[in-house]
Design brief:
10 helices; three-stranded antiparallel sheet; alpha+beta
Length: 422
């Protein structure tokens, strides 16, 4: 019965996609999905709760968002099954948020005579999904810089599977469940994509990725604002030839730093927080970003300087503008203006990455490429502090398959995209 329900749900997703003429409406369509896709009145998962088809909320999510047998990036999948990434094989998904499969990748080796272990759990948010053996972080029992319990972290901690937050025809965001008097305009589709419908008066579309916001306190923390972004379609794809640009927006309290601070508030404290976030880049940093091509090359131009390894938030909430900028064909590669903002996602991926702390690049050594190669235990010369127990193909996968020629032959860490200190 459970296999039938899951397969039926996948078929429903495909059918909705086709009926929409290729527009990514998918299962959720910007709001609450069909109840039977996640809940079963008469045959829920054993030992589960809320009549879910999975043992826990994240297992329920991954019953669709992870699929054994993938051979490459696949649509809305956010995790690679264990069987599809044996030792030496990197996770397959290339979505902007990263692949939770990196949480299963532990690397060991010897650096400067000392043995090291880089635990998979260091690679991102350790959501708990019993059915797919994702477990809580054993080192961070609470969110770094906060008090949110690691034992309660799941997909639903950030995403609202019922999708109450919505964007109205005016561009305003509301959450009618938690905001008294807010209009309950019906959601007509997803608000996540550059192909999303524009709601008419009396209509709404969903928030980006069904993210929580605007007073939602169901997780024991309160999301004050909303997170604004638009993604192209498809978005889960290799960047071997062209980049996937998510257009992030920011206005007022609706910034990514403010949203992430819901669980990580002390990361913004004056005593502990050092790197600016949600602040304008300023003319000097914007100029560095736009000139920086790679180590030793500052000949870049603003019209072609964007890198998805170092995205920024545009100083706007205008959805039409963000939809025009969210592209996957390199048709819009403009770098930042001085008023655009640095954000948490400028350096980190939201789910997980191939590097500790879900960083977009390796911060554990000064070189991202070495001798015109991606460092690996199989490359020559082998430099353990740059390879960190990985094969070269795993390092390249962490950079979403970019050809090594996208970087200098001895490329230093990508902090230099903004700071140009190399």
């Amino acid at each position: 019965m459970k296999t039938f329900r899951v397969c039926f749900g996948v078929l429903a997703v495909a059918l909705l996609f086709l009926l929409a003429g290729g527009t990514p409406q998918a299962f959720h369509s910007g709001g609450v999905a069909e109840c039977g896709g996640c809940h079963s009145m008469h045959n829920p998962a054993p030992n589960g709760s809320f009549l879910l088809v999975g043992t826990d909320p994240s297992s329920t999510c991954l019953s669709c968002h992870m699929h054994a047998g993938d051979t490459g990036p696949s649509s809305y999948h956010v995790a690679t099954a264990d069987a599809d990434m044996p030792a030496g094989v990197p996770p397959l998904q290339r979505g902007p948020g990263g692949d939770f499969g990196w949480l299963k990748k532990t690397y060991t080796g010897v650096i400067r005579g000392e043995a090291f272990t880089e635990e998979g759990q260091t690679h991102g948010h350790n959501v708990i999904a019993v059915d797919t053996t994702f477990t809580a972080d054993t080192d961070n029992t609470t969110a770094p810089g906060g008090t949110f319990p690691g034992s309660q972290l799941g997909c639903e901690s950030c995403h609202d599977p019922h999708g109450r937050v919505r964007r109205l025809s005016t561009g305003a965001y509301v959450n009618p469940i938690y905001q008294a008097g807010a209009t309950n305009a019906p959601i007509i589709g997803s608000g996540s994509y550059n192909t999303s419908l524009t709601p008419a008066a009396g209509q709404a579309v969903g928030s980006y990725r069904l993210l929580r916001g605007l007073g939602d306190n169901t997780q024991g923390v309160t999301f004050a604002g909303v997170a604004i972004a638009i993604t192209p379609t498809p978005y889960n794809r290799t960047e071997a030839a062209t980049q996937t640009r998510v257009a992030y927006g920011a206005t007022g309290i609706n910034t990514w730093g403010n949203w992430c601070a819901t669980c990580h508030p002390d990361m913004h404290s004056s005593g502990n927080y050092v790197h600016p976030v949600d602040e304008s880049l300023g003319s000097d940093v914007a100029a560095n970003y736009n000139m920086y091509v790679k180590t030793g090359d500052l000949t870049g131009a603003a019209a072609t300087s964007f890198s998805s390894l170092a995205p920024f938030a545009e100083n706007t909430a205008d959805i039409a503008v963000l939809q025009a900028h969210a592209q996957n064909n390199n048709s819009y590669l403009n770098g930042p203006a001085s008023s655009d903002k640095v954000m948490c996602l400028s350096c980190h991926r939201a789910h997980a990455s191939g590097w500790p702390e879900a960083l977009r690049w390796n911060m554990e050594g000064e070189f991202m490429t070495y001798n015109s190669l991606y460092p690996g235990t199989d490359t020559t010369p082998t430099v353990p502090q740059f390879a960190r127990g990985r094969l070269g193909i795993e390092t390249q996968a962490a950079y979403y398959d970019r050809p090594v020629t996208a970087f200098a032959s001895y490329q230093r860490v990508f902090c230099n995209k903004c700071h140009a200190k190399d």
